[in-house]
Amino acid sequence: MMNAIKTILLSSLAITCAYSAQASEEQLFGGTVSGKVTFATDYVFRGESETIDAEEPVAQATLGWGNDAGWYAGAFASNAKFRNSDIRIVTAPYIGKYGQIGDTGFTYDVMLFSYLYPGATDANYTELWMKVGKQFGNTNIQLEVTPTVDDWFGVKGWKGINYSIHPSYQVNDKLTLSSSFGYQALSGTGAEGWMHWNLGLAYQVSGLNLDLRYHGSNVEEDHKVYGTQTDIFDHRVVFGISKSF
Asked: CB 3.0-4.6 Å disulfide test: which of 21, 102, 109, 159 passes with 98?
């Protein structure tokens, strides 16, 4: 079953590459189509390994559309593996708008992002990503507030808000240093939030983006939600290779 899922996902990656490469210079509904494929040693989301402590590498694909007015939409897909769950793939359609805030030099980015889990649809949920950023020379700082629109991970009565800051520094045309420090707040009976962070570097070479990143969190054995599976929050180093089209 897992081999079949991987075959389907890898096929979708190939289709994404072919379609986005063909459409990259063409207009579609007044905008352009782009794509990205990524292969990495793990899929870490807010400090949590989405593959049960890196039990398997990940293949990911994004296919998106955007126009000059700042509107964009698309879909993301990745293999995943959750303990005691039928989840093997996550797909995520999204739609958003970005732009400048007047002449202030600040930017904004607002996006609806839905996490869909084939075979485990009770876990589906949606977040409203909201970011404000500003460039300071070679340094960029993004502030993020991301609340859930419905029940977090399908748990009845649970709501989440992620607060993060994302600083980055462009060393040169090829090398960028970046990090993220955040707190995933959870409310509801038996819920508890956690802190998460990452620090890494990205290097552009031969049309590829190489990313080496350290991830961490403060989840320990007394955590109300993840105390019995703290291994998925172990501090870890993740290496990824991506290609944009």
From this structure: 109
